[in-house]
Every structure is written in structure tokens, then in C-alpha cells.
Structures
1.
Amino acid sequence: MKPGNMALSALIVILLTSMVWVNTELRTVYNQIDLTDKLRNYLSIDTDEYSILKISGSNGYPIEIHQSDRQEMRVLRSRLSQIEHKIHGDTLIIHFSGARVSPSSLVNTATPPGIMISSTALSEIILEDTHNRVSGFDQSSLHLNLRGSSYTELSDNRIGSFSVQAMGSSSFEFQNKSSADTALFRLKGGSVGFLEGLSYHVIEPIMEDSSLVVLSKNALQELMHTQ
Amino acid sequence: MSLTSIRLLISRQFKEQMRVYLIAMALLIGLLAFMFLLIHNWRDSFSGAVENGVFLIGLFLSGGLFTNSMFREFSNNSEGIWLLNIPATSMEKVVSAVLLSTVIFLAVYLSIFFLVDTLYLNLTGQANAKGFFDMFTNGFHEFILLYLIFNGLILLGRVSFVKHSFLKSMVVIIAGFVVLNTLNNFSLEYMIPDLSVTSSMPLSSFQFRQSGENIHVQLPAATQAMVSPFLWTLTPLFLWGITWLKIKEKEI
């Protein structure tokens, strides 16, 4: 056999042997997955305590943030390499990189969440360029700071003093019933707020630039009545 | 191995082919601009990392054709004998071809891509909102390392096949990838009973179906750190080495 063909055969043998060895390692990882767990497709990541959440990055996969009796962060196994996180003071800073998709395709997307964050209580959530679902918060106050082209769906929240600051081309939408004693909205740039799913006692909207608020007929009448 | 010989071999290539290279560069600019025009016109249909797609199509298409132009003399007997008689060792000839088709090609390709991408983003008013192309997120730079393996395979095909070497090399590369992937899936399904592999990447990860859900299994970071240097460094070195052996066989 010629030296070139011998070397080529050796490379093929090395590649195939490595492939089998790597597959035995992958089998070990597979055996650690609890297939009966409904969150089997997610890996848990440990973090220190925090009260402010700051997330930036891409909108390809939704990020779920909800209140729970314990603090936990889970990441979709296939997206693990795309998340960077660190604690700075009492702020958990997350960068979730990846592909960006058209904002019009985010509504009712069937894409599974890329990150699921459970938190006992949060004072502020800062979201930039990501697709977010904030739900289940029942606390005295919460400040939501939306930047870039972030799109945030809000559902089933009961907040005493709920303030939302939206900038850039960010948008937020109250879907299932959320309530607030006092709702403060400050919208700038080209931001848009859909307030149909929110009930409130007091509302204070401040709107600048070309920002928009979208209301249903009932919500508009309720707002006029409140004012 | 003499650095002077390598420099002279690269200079010879430029002197003989400069006109072709200038036309090819203009063609590459046109191809990239055309692809950017397409994704801009149908931007609602193309979502996700479309710039990355344009980058990869341009890289592998132009890189493959350029690499295949190395040692083109071997497709003709008399020119092949002339190339073998050039007063430089076969190692120097391989090193000069590798430098031209990797280091120099990548420098030119990246410059052209960033130029066209910058023009596209500025002309479509996306420069501020979107930011410029970043090839160091999500491991995208690994495609550059994959290009080195691709380069090794095309060079090896160039010296192995006398006629239609690019087409034959591409057929062998695609067939090789299909066979490797099939063997990989077979190996995984043999090792793990009742596993239904939906996709896999040899030496890296696989995905399987469980109760209607695709579950991704990735190598642990420590193991990946062991495999990656072998895959990205030794494989192209091995392929360039085999190319050198094949040229030496021609000398004999």
C-alpha cells in the first residue's frame, strides 16, 4: 500500500475510534437524563441570591420568568452554550445570544422556552432585545424596564405598584388577567403597550416621542372613567 | 524547508494568476451583494441568522473553488511534470498552497465580506439597530476551523483526481459525511437500546425523540475540550500531510 493511502486509512481508523469513544461518553450523559421528568429537556443552573434581573441577547427562544417559592434557573439543553450569566451586587445579569427573528413571528410562537427562571421575589426586571413571558408575580411592587426590541408578554400578575418603562422599539402586552393597584407607564421612542388584559385602580401613563398604547373599547372607557 | 522558496512559490502563483484573482474578487463581491439583496427583499421570509448563512455560502463556495485552483497543473501530464520539476521540495509546494488557500484567502475573504456587509447594513439603515456581523458568538468561529478541514479535503482531492477534481472531491466529501453520520447514528442506537436518533453530529452531540419532544445530548464541557483540539487541529494537519505524501508519490 502506498504511504498516502496508509496515512489516509490511519486517519479514518482514528476518526471512527474517536467517534465510538465519544458516543460512549454521550451514552453516559444520556443515562443521567430522567426521561420521566417533564423538564427533561432543561438543565438546572445554580445562581446566588438576587433581586434584580437583567437579561439581554436574542429573541429566537422565549424566556419565561415567573414567581415561585424557590429560586431556580433552567436552560434548554441545546441552548446551554448560548447563555452567559454573572451576579453583580444583587443583580443577576444574563446574556442569551443566538438568532434574532422578525418581531411579527414572536406572537403565539410554538418555540419552547430557552430559559425558565423561577424567582421568589424581584424588585426590577430589565429586558433588552429578548422575547419574554413574565407571569405569576404576586407582590407589592415590580418595576419592568424594557429596552431595544424586546417583546414581553405579561399574564396572571397581581402587583401593588406596577411600573413599566419602555424604550426603543420594545413592546409589552398584558394577556391573561393581570391587576395592579397603581399602574405607572412611561413609554418613549417607538415603544408600544397593549393594556387590554390589565385591570387597575390608578393609572398614570406618560408617553413621549412616537410611543403607542393600544386599548380595547372597554379598557378605554375604563381609563376615561378612571381619569 | 526554505522560507524563500515558499515566498517565491506564492509570488509565482500571484504573477501567473493575478488577473484571474482580480476577476474572482469582483465576482465574489457581486455574489455576496446579490445574496444580501435577496435576503433584504424577502426579509419577512428569512428570519434568524441570515448573515451567517451568506457568510458560510460565500466561504465554502469561493474557498473550495480557490483551493481547487492549487496544483491545477496536475490535471495535465506535461504541466504536472513541469510543476514537479520546479526547484522546491514537495513540502514547500504543499505549505505554499496551504498558506495561499487558508491564511491569505481567509484574510481576503473576511475583508470582502465585512466590506459588503457594512455597505449592506448602512444602505438598508440597519447599522445602528442590528450591529455588525460578529463571528465570535455561539461558537460560529468554529466554521473557520471547519473550513481548514474542508481545505485539506479539497487539496487532497486535487492531487488524487486528475480530471474534474472539484466535482469528484465534493461527491466524496458528501458521501463520506453521509456514511460517517449513518455509522454514528447506528453506533448510538446500538449502544443505547430503544433510542430514536433524530439528528447527530459525529464527535459532538445527538438529538433524540421522546414523547413528541426533541431532546439534545451534548458532550460534557471537559470532554469537548479534549476532542476539539484533535478535531480542529490534527485533522487538517493530517490531511495536508497526506496531500504531501501523494505529491511525493508522483515524484517517484
2.
Amino acid sequence: MMSAAAEIPEPDDVLLAQRGDSAAFERLYRLQAGQVYALALRLTGAREPALELTQDAFVRAWERLESFRRESAFGTWLHRLTLNVFLNQTRADTRRRNRVDVLDDETDAPVVGTDPAERMDLEAAISKLPRGARVAFVLHEIEGFSHEEIAATLGLAAPTVRSHVFRARRLLMEMLDR
Amino acid sequence: MSDQADRDEADRLKALLGSAARLPRNIEPPVDQWPGIRARIDDARVVPIHANAAPQVRTPAVVRSRTQRYLVAAAAVIVIGGSVYLARSSFYMSAAPSTAATTATRQTPVLASPASPAVADAAPSAGRLGVRSRTVSSRATRDPAHVMSAFDAYEDAARDLSSSLKARRSQLDPKTLAVLDTCMRQIDQAINEARAALGHNPGNEIVTDFLRSSYQQKLDLLKRTVEGPRRTL
């Protein structure tokens, strides 16, 4: 458990890290890794890609520290940067598969076991959502983004995002009712 | 669909969204990522990029809905508030300061099998509260049987710490005890739910991480209560 004080990076650490102090950046990593990993785990739905995304996000943060202008909390900036890294990777994967829609998940239908004993908690159920529905649900229902904000971020129409969220809700209720 | 069915559906949806909003915002990575990050940022190919690529940011007021903020705040009050209260209680003032507690949140019992050398280190001993730096073998993190064995080590460590705490309960302020017990009930409930979920779905990585995080919270709270004040609060 982290203390209230530990949730807030020391301003000097951000400044020191911006000047190239990797020890200060390590302290920032220690403070923020849990929040970044939680977001990464929910966006990717599995541990290994979440660990990779966490590492990629911190490396990208190091690269772009100069652009952090303290207009928000460092954690907020890092949160958004993690999401951008995820979306960039998703777009790259999509291009490799010659697919158009970044959240096109027709082939990512959820694999839900038929065993009625396979009840799971909400986290596990979210991890089994198709990618588009999972990302939209995580961003809207957990991270608190509006449909319009998600649409702008993902380059989709707001009704499409609403549709993804709606679909995620239905699938989750079905999975959790089993 | 009947009105009653509509109401039931709405209730279920409300419960689902409430649960989603209450999901933990912090899940510690099962593996320390810093060595890999350090190696990459030390690589000459990684160079700073200038400001024109700044990611857009939002203010916290935009980030979360009002309901979500209330739920997150309620959870934070219980967990963080409990920690702050405990840290500032008179009990702590009479206890010996411990700089080790400052880094306690960054330590965890090792996820490894009982047969591995690492588990011997993870097992609690009288003088060393059953925690050590995070080192995880990939085999241990993937094998459900090994993972469950490691969680047994968490249970053992928590049991020992609880015994130590039990012996000192009479010295604690009743308000302190009430806060501690409330926090512990919340954490134990989360642990029980996660263990039940793992029972139905062994090897699920997300539930495993959630369970580990819950155990870390429990051990950290117990450890700080037994050891003494945190200077960084």
C-alpha cells in the first residue's frame, strides 16, 4: 500500500529527470509503475503485453520528459502517454495485418468457456472482452473518458465508441451471469 | 421485456458499472521493469525528443465522472486514510522508528515454488518480516500451482505478522484498532474473492496480479503497524 505522500512525485525528481538524472527517473518509476501497469493490464488484457507496454511507456516518457510542462500532474501526463503508446502499437499491429479500423475486432470474438463453473471476477471478464470493446470500456467506465474524448483519441466517431461500450457492457453482464 | 425485467437489467448494469469504477487504480507489476527500462534509456539510440510531440493532457476534473470520483475517493479514504491514521496514532509515537518501513511498499514475498531457494527467503522468520526485494522467476509466475504455493507463503507471512500484532493489540488505541480492522476486512474480502476466482479460473494472470496486489497491501499494513511509523507520510 502506498502512502498519500508516495502517490505524488517529488517535483524535484521530475526536474532532475528532465535534466537527465536516471536515478530521479527511477524514483518516478517506483511511484508510478503500479498505476501504469494497471492501465496497461486492462488495455491489453494479459500480463506479458502489459509488462511490455509498461516498459515502453516509461522509455517513451524518458524520451519525452522535456515536453512535460507541468500543466497537469506528472501521473496524469504519464497516464495519457501510456494510452498513446498503446494506441500507436495497436495501429502498427493493425497496419501489419492490413486492417483499416484500429478497433475492428470482428475476428477477436471473446473466448468464453462453456463450463458454468468458469465464473470470474470483473477483471478477468474484462480481459476476455474483444479488443475494441475492452479498450472502449476501460477508457469510458474505468478511466472516465467521455465518448467524445475517446472518439477523438482513437479517430473514431462517437457513436462507434458508444457502440463498443454498449457491447462491452452486454458481454460483461453475460459473462458474469454465467 | 417487462417492467420488472427492465428494472432488474438496470440494477445489474448499475452494479456492473459500480464495480468497474471501484477497480483498483494501482496494480504493482509482478516483475520489476526498471532494469529493462534502465538498459533501454542507457542505450545511445534513445535520445530526448523535443516538445512539439507533447501528449495532450486533461485536468483531473475532466478525467473522471463525478460518481467515479466519489467511489475512488471512498476507497482512498479507507485505505490511505487508514494508513495515515495508523501512522500518526500514539501507538506509533511509542514505537521505534523504522526507516525500513519507507521502502516496505516496494517489497513483496517472492513468487516461487516451495522447492526453490527463493521461497526459503520468502518464508517469514522471527526477525525478518517475510518480505524481500521483488524477484520473480518466469516459471513461477506462469505455473498456477507455483503461484498458489507462493500465495500460501503470503498467508504464512500474514499469519505471523497478525500474531505479532495480536500480542500488541492491548497497547493500541481503540480508534486505531477500529481503523485497522476495517482496512483488514476490506483487504481480506478482496483476497477471498480473488482466491475464489482463481479457483474457478486457475492461471488467470489478471486475477493473479490482483490477488498479489491485495496480499501486498495486507502485508504492508500489518508490517507498518507492527514495525512503527512511516517517516514519509
3.
Amino acid sequence: MATVDIRNVMKAFGAVKVLHGVSVDIADGEFVVLVGPSGCGKSTLLRMLAGLENITAGEIAIGPRVVNNVPPKDRDIAMVFQNYALYPHMTVFENMAFSMKLAKAPREVMEAEVGRAAKILGLEALLQRYPRQLSGGQRQRVAMGRAIVRNPQVFLFDEPLSNLDAKLRVQMRAEIKELHQRLKVTTVYVTHDQIEAMTMADKIVVMNSGNVEQAGPPLELYDRPTNLFVAGFIGSPAMNLVKGGVGGGGFTAEGGAVLPLPEGASGKAGVYGIRPEHIQLRPDGIPATVVLVEPTGSETQVIARIGETSLTCAFRERVSARPGETIHIMPEMGLVHLFEAGSGRRLAA
Amino acid sequence: MSATTTAPAWNRVRQEPGWLARVFEIKIVLVLACLFPAVALLMTFLTYPLGLGIFLAFTDTTIGRSGQWVGLENFEYLLEDPLWWNAVFYSVFYTGVATFGKFALGLWLALLLNNNLPLKSLLRAIILLPWIVPTVLSAIAFWWIYDPQFSIISYLAVDVLGVRTTNIDFLGSAWPARWSLIAANIWRGIPFVAISLLAGLQTISPSLYEAALLDGSTGWQRFRYITFPMLLPILAIVMTFSIIFTFTDFQLVYAITRGGPVNSTHLLATLAFQRGIPGGQLGEGAAIAVSMIPFLVFATLFSYFGLARRKWQQGEGND
């Protein structure tokens, strides 16, 4: 096990810069999720960590050792690929034992190590099968088994669940997290799915167009997003972000709607953020016209309009309103996020 | 909705199919009509000549005289014919050495082309050239290259480099002529092998190489454990075709040496032609041609069963 230090790392493909000085500190045994929209550079960063891409500038250290010029096989890492990259012409056993075979390990050692990993993942019955004969979830497990057998300092996962169906994804998500709790190996996990990030991570690193927007524990990112990008990216359904300005006895949206401001709010606020789940139904609330009702069972999502401003609301209670009717809603004052208009930075509230 | 104008009234006409369309609605008619052109062409240009060839092999037909059924007499005669044995030997030797050369060089070329090279598509086009040029043209070019007096290789060796004092005798005696023909055949065959194997290489996912890189493999190990086993099915098919084309080769040998010197470079195909057309012994020529069939069947079965299907390709799932 080891720490990972990424210090001001840059990456350019020819003239195109994809990473502009990224720094991330990863503690020993930590589960770090790199999350961001596609093209933000998260996979590139992971591949640089693995040694599959070279580092244009900056440093990456695994443990005390700077690995910029260390070839991938000597970095003591193991990676799970998005398409699993299982060798199709080898059985599950041979796939998992391949690194030991290359290192000329004796047969007994291979059997013991593969057996140990197979037991952890419940693959004992499948060792003689070929990858083609496995289901998606089983292949996923074999890919993880191949990584476990290596006994690496760091596990790298590159969007490992994106090829699975929704139900299996939730199941494998729990399995990977449980595996991490058992093995306590430092893990770097790349995904574009913020729910995966929220549920699995000790620390989330939100990236956007080659920069780190915010890094921290999941709930900190949820409670105190430092800028508009993180505010909009973390949380589902996404936070309502309303443009406008302070004035007229509250926050006046561009469409004319007036939303209440918490006490001591900065007068510079240009964007008003409120999460759908932080809007309540209150008889004394602001009247709003219902546009759309989406019941999911556990909650009801309602899109309502105040003047020209649409707000997505998520109510725990069942709402019987129909489109066109009027409901009365009120943001929870302590949970309103205010951002500066130009820079998008969070204003202390 | 007040702005919409009403469309003029019309009655939807139901199309009545014509008699031809109705006839083609009958499935058996459609099937026969679609099959007829292909079957007719194959029967005329493939089945009939093949059948006639096999029939002639059992007769003593000569040009100008229809022969009589002689049973296996032609084949019995061939078994005692040193020229036939000579052609069998050279056909096998020629096929074996040329196939080995084509695959060694073709695989090497395919591996090179699979890297990210500048001007990749231009290089690929250039590599296909020997295959695009008609065989007879390239054979004539090789004839010049191997000419006793004007050979460019001799010119380079004698006049430019000065490593020899006399011209090289490429086609004047048996073994040099045999090797020269093999070299020409390899040159012609490389593009087919290289391009086919390149297509196979490109189906191997790059992430497998990355996974192997992380697993600690060397370049040779990646070739040995990833590239080669995954290429094997395509290799088998390409090799089957290559063996068939090489074993039945005619043009190159006939254009460069005509089987000489002293019949030393006859392949079975050139010998069959020599006997049958200029020699006039149609029955015997046909028997020589038919005698190629067992060799071809054996080569095909060998590469099909020996190399083609692997267990890992079978099983469930299509992805």
C-alpha cells in the first residue's frame, strides 16, 4: 500500500493541452474517485498514473518514489479496464495467472494466488472457462481478480462499470467498495457517473476541461460546492441554478420571480442555487404553476414555474397536483447556495 | 388551429400488382429465378471443365483424336515417370519454401505497418503494388532481372560493388533457377499475406497490450502470448489460400523458365500444360492436373483442422 502524489501534472497531445497542472494528494488506503464529464482528462490522468501515457510536465509519486520515468510494469499498480481487456484465448485461470507466468512463478504459487483471489470474488467454479463464456458481471470480477493477484500498491479502475446494465452496476458498485474495505489498498477510480462517485469515494476529485474543480469528501462537495460547475455536477436531479441579482426584497430572477434570501446573504450574488430536495411544500410558500409531475415511488419530482423561472423540486411526500395547477413551495433557507455571476465562485453564506 | 386549410378530397388507390409481380410472389419461382444465373455460370465455367478434365484423365485422348477409356493407366504411367516425380518434388519444395518466406516477411511487414507510421496509407498502397501488377508483367520484369547478360543484380555485383568478376547465372542451371523462381513468388505473395494479417492485427484490442504491459510483459512476450495466438485463426485461413495459390502456380514459372532448364523447374501445373497442349497428350496432361487434387485436399484439411478453430472462439456471447 502506498500514497499517491500528483503534483502539478500537465499533459499535451501535440499542441492540444488536456491537463493544465493537476494536483491531487491521495492518502494510503484511500478510495479516490476522479469524476467529470467526458473529455475532462480524468482517464488521461489515470493512464499517466499507470504509465500508459507519458507525463508532459509535473510529477507523479507512488509512495516515496517519483515514477515519471518508471515503466508501467515496475510501478506496482494494477488496472481494471473499461472493456476489462481479458485475454480471450486464455481461461479465467490463465488470465489471472498471466503476470505470474511472465515472471516464471512456479505452478503451486500460481494456483495458491489465483485460488485466493478467486475465493475473494467467488470465481472458483469459473476458472476453466473462457471469457466468452462469462456474463458481463463475471468478466468484471475476473478483471478485478487479475488485479488482486498482482498484490499491487495501487488499484486503478477506468470506468469499470459502464458496460454493465443498471442493476448489475449497483451490485458491482457495492462489491468493489466492500473489496476495498477488505483489502484496504489505495484505489483510484475513474467514472463519469456522479452517483458512483458519491457512493464509493472517500474523496472525490471533480475535474472539468483539464482542471481540478474541487476535491474533498463526497458530502462536503454536496453541501458546499465551491463553484457553479461542481454545484451542477454533483447531485441528482441537478441543483436548480437561477440567474438574477439581489434586490426587490430578495433574489430577483431574470424572469422576474422573487426568491427569498437567507439572512446575511452577500449582495453580490448573481446565481441562486437550491437543490430539488431542499424545496418544501408550504401553504405560505411562493405560488408556482406545475409543469410536469414525475412520481418515482420514493419521491415525487415536480417541475414548477414561478413566473418565467422553472424549478425542479423533489418531494418526499406524494403530490397529487396535476400540470397547470398551482402549488406553494419554499426553499429551505439554510441550504441555499449563492454564487458570483462572472467567476461562478461560491459566496460565503 | 384556425389557420389550417382543408386538403382537397381524394381516394387512396390500392395498387394492384401486375402478373409478373404475382409470379414472383411465389417463393419457389423467386428462388429459382435468383439462383439460375449463378448456377449457369458455375456449371459452364467450373463444373463442366473440371468434370471434363477428370474424365480426360481416364482416357488416352490426344489433340485431334478422341480417346478411349483406359482406366488408371495414365496414373500408373505417371508413377513411373521421373519427370512427374520431379514436378511433385519441386511443387512441394516451391510451395513450402515460398510459403515460409511469404509468411515470415509478410508478418514482419504487417507488424511494422500496424504501428503508427507517418504516411501510413501511402505505405500500404505501395505494399499492395506487387499484387496489383499482372503476374505475367512482373514475371517478365523478373526475367530481365535474372537475365544472364543484362541482369541488374549482376550489374550491381560486378560493375558497381565489384564483389564478383562474372555475371550470375540465375536461370541456366537447376538449383539457381529453382531458388530464383521461389524469390519471385515470395515477392509477389508478400502483399496478400501482409495486408490480410494487418487486417487481423487491427482486430486485436489495444487494451490487451496495455493490460499485458501492466502485467509485466516484454515485447517478445506480448507477441508470443497475445499477438500470435489471437492472429492464428486468420493466419490459418490466409495460409490455406496461400498454399493453394502457390501449389497451383503456373504463370510465373511458365513466363520465366517454361519449366527449364532440363525440366528442373516444372510445377505440376506447368508440366500438365506442357504434356497436354504443346505435347498433345490431353489424357496424360489431365491426369497430371488431377494428381494435384490429393495434395491440395491434404493442405487444406491440415490448415483448417490444425490451425483454424480454437476453443476460445466458441461458446456463448457475441461481443
4.
Amino acid sequence: MPLAERRKRTEPEIPSASLADIAFLLLIFFLVATTIDVDSGIGMVLPPKLEENQQPPPIKERNMLKILVNDQGQVLVEDRPIVSLRQIRDEVKKHILNNGQDPNYAESPDKAIISVKTARNTPYRVYIDVLDEIKLAYREVRDMVARQRFGMDYLTYRNRFAKDDPEKDEIRKLIPQKISLAEPDPGTGGGQ
Amino acid sequence: MATFKRKTQLKQSIPTASLPDIVFLLLIFFMVSTKLREVNLLVTLVMPQAEEIEKIEQKRLISYIWIGKDKGTGQYRVQIDDALVEIPEIRHIMYKKLLEEPRLIVSLRVDRDAPMGLVTDVQQELREAGTLRINYSTKRQAAT
């Protein structure tokens, strides 16, 4: 039985020295193939669909700041033409922080509504610019209130106290973002 | 000199037995986080820029809608997944997606010069479907 003896002595083994190399190769492939581009943009929540005979809730005229954008990208705020988009930010801030002083602006920050209305041929770019200015106005107001109350800017406050639960966010309750997107006018020429 | 001799006797080496395990762990992480399938865009678009933007962390919740010029005809069209769709179809497609993922976020990737009428039509369809969380995808613009 010399044959059987010989087989016993050689211990079969899979060479595992190159295992790490193979794994590294695969790793590098996936590293290269991965795209870590975080999607960023302006977040909005659309209003839910109205039921057949349901009327939109009544809103006081003064609480609504109307922003109108026409085909050429010209902007009207409360029927007044504006020169630069920067003015939108100031108007929105004035509207939110009015607290009932000026009868043309909102009664209180939580009742303030910004209404954006576009024409069908308004370029999307202008709409985004306007929306951006409104968002920036809200950001500035929220930052200001957060500094007054908590001594930090809004993002820091939110990350510290209301990270998981929007219900705890006091500033969000005080100054809710109410942006209404009105259906556009047919405008001249119509859409595509 | 006796103290110097003592030091050199130990053979020092980093244990590499667990190296494959570590690498495999990394590998699995990247395999899971990689989304290999790139959508073949049928429309051309240049995204607008904005300043006050937020990031979406939960990438898995996002579903994209592209609005841009058709590469063939130059008309503004809507693309979902790999196909160009007509406006009235959107509500059915998005409703199906919403049933699969109730926390769906719709990311609208719209060309800078697209007419608002088309965007609004798409938004009306999204309201019909009940997918109310949307995101206007924009590039970052330097603060002014």
C-alpha cells in the first residue's frame, strides 16, 4: 500500500495569496464605476388634487403676495414691475415679517402665502430664479428668527433639535413656507 | 551594549491574513451602493442654476422625469425611464411607481428654456397620480 500512503502526505490547499489581489481588482472596478453625484435641487410639495366639487380654501387677499411672470420673463410683484430679481427677495421678506403693520402685506408670518403664476411660454429658467429668490428670502428670515431665539442659524438649529422630527421644529411652525403654484395663463401663442 | 542586541531578534510583520476580508467588505459596500444602469437620455437638456438648494440623501426614493428637446425633432418632450411619454400617460406611470415606493420623490430635470406650460402640465399629472413630493433639479450657483 505505498500508493495510499503517498496521497495522505500531500495536503491539498487552494492558494489564497492572490485572493487579496483579485478582490482589490474588483474593488477598483467598482470604485471607478460608482457615481457619487448627490442629486440637489429645490424641493417642493405639490398641493393634493381637489375633489370634484371642493372649493379651494378661502384666503384673505392681503395674506397673498402675488408674483407674476410673463412670456418674456418680466416679473410683476403685486402688480408692480420690478427691475432686478433681487427685489423679489426683499418683497417676500417684507411680506413675511409684516405682522399686520402694512395693510397690503401679510397679517402674520404663518399666514403669509406666496403665489407664483407664470405664462405658458415663460422659460423654466426664470421660474427657477424666482423660486430661488423666494426660498432665499425664507432662509434669511428663518436664520434671523433662529438667531434671535436660539442664537444660531436655522440649519444648525434644525440639525440639533429637529433632525428626525419636523414636528419639533419651532421655527418651521412659526414661519411655514407656503408657496402656491398657480396654473398658468394661456398667454400668447400657447404652449407646445 | 547588551541592551541594543536584545531589540533586533523579533521578526516583525503586519498580519495580512485578514486583508482579503477587509477588501471584500469594501467591495461589497461599493457593489451595493453602485447604480450601474445609466439611463439613456433621449432628450437634450441644460439644467438651470440656483442658490438655495438642498440635497436629497435618499437616492433610492428618487424617480426622474426629464423634460428637454427631442434629439431628433427638436420638440420639447417628456422622458420617464427609457422612453418618451405623452402627457396623459404620466399619471399611470407615476401612480404605479408610487404604489411600489410610497415615499417617492420625483426629481424634475428640466431644460433651462423649456416652456412653463409643459412643466405645469406634468405637475398636474403628478397631482393626479398623487406623487406630491417633487424636486426641481438644479446645479449649484455661486452665492451672489
